[in-house]
Design a protein that fits this description.
six-stranded antiparallel sheet; 31% helix; single chain; 10 helices; alpha/beta; five-stranded parallel sheet; elongated
């Protein structure tokens, strides 16, 4: 029995933004032509290598895989990745033969017009087309997606996120930027001032939003709750700590420790601030909640 060829979407896909989705859609649309849609991607830490640690990745590896399955409505036959160290020394032709043909069984390869591959990113789409002619796969190139004459890109989305331009970032992403990780224990200061919170950590190397308070939406058992999220290091509380997301969920009480919770970011309210006392912090949180209730 002949094994079905795959339509393989190629890319880093660290944000699953509208530009990425144009590539993914090319692969998904090939299902009607009898090909199996699939994805070959790279660990988001590749962003750190490409920028010498200057740029953080938007979503980590686990989050990205969840988002890819969800975006494809489980229409992808397979989502594959390898460690960067396994392919970084491959020539462009070795990548085409060993990964696209032998590993992925590609009949069609889909990518953006700026896709690079091979050792030292030596090859682009023209070389990919040439290898396709040699090894028996076609190449489809997704057109750049533009909004307000600006090309949607991970770089532009990163710029928006670090500047607190969350609404614009959400437009480019195609959905609200979100944190979807396990709730961990914190110092429980929120409980002592009557505003219990859930704490969620960023992954090492992941881009952190502009420090501040955001209007967010939190999903618990498919129920959507309004919430207020602080991104930062809790400067009012003594001690040093790494940045995290601390969310107070309106009109909810319950134990969410060790559960994976999705928090979507809708609007930047104010920058993070160090208050002179915990009581002053409590008053400001009350004010932030009143703002969110009015939105």
């Amino acid at each position: 029995m002949e094994i079905k060829k795959r339509a393989v979407a190629l890319g880093l896909f660290d944000g699953i933004h509208l530009g990425h989705r144009a590539v993914l859609d090319l692969a998904l649309n090939q299902k009607k032509n009898g090909l199996k849609p699939a994805v070959f991607t790279f660990n988001p830490v590749t962003v750190l290598r490409k920028s010498s640690g200057k740029d953080g990745y938007i979503y980590d590896h686990v989050h990205k895989f969840k988002a890819l399955w969800r975006y494809g409505s489980f229409g992808f036959y397979d989502i594959e990745t390898v460690r960067f160290e396994e392919i970084c020394d491959m020539s462009g032709e070795e990548f085409a033969e060993n990964i696209l043909v032998k590993k992925m069984n590609a009949g069609i390869v889909c990518c953006g017009n700026n896709f690079r591959f091979g050792k030292n990113a030596s090859c682009g789409v023209e070389e990919l087309k040439s290898f396709g002619e040699k090894y028996g796969f076609d190449v489809q190139i997704a057109e750049p997606v533009k909004i307000d004459d600006i090309t949607v890109s991970s770089g532009e989305i990163r710029r928006c996120l670090v500047n607190g331009e969350i609404e614009r970032a959400n437009t480019l992403l195609g959905e609200p930027y979100n944190i979807y990780t396990t709730v961990v224990h914190g110092n429980e200061i929120g409980r002592t001032i009557n505003f219990p919170t859930i704490n969620q950590n960023y992954s090492k190397g992941q881009l952190v939003l502009k420090y501040g308070v955001y209007f967010t939406s939190t999903y618990i058992d498919d129920i959507k709750y309004k919430s207020v999220t602080n991104i930062g290091v809790k400067p009012t509380i003594a001690g040093k700590r790494t940045p995290l997301a601390e969310t107070h969920i309106l009109d909810f009480s319950g134990d969410l420790y060790n559960k994976n919770i999705r928090v979507e970011f809708n609007k930047f309210i104010r920058p993070e601030k160090k208050f002179s006392s915990v009581d002053e912090l409590r008053k400001q949180i009350s004010s932030d909640i009143a703002v969110v209730r009015e939105i």
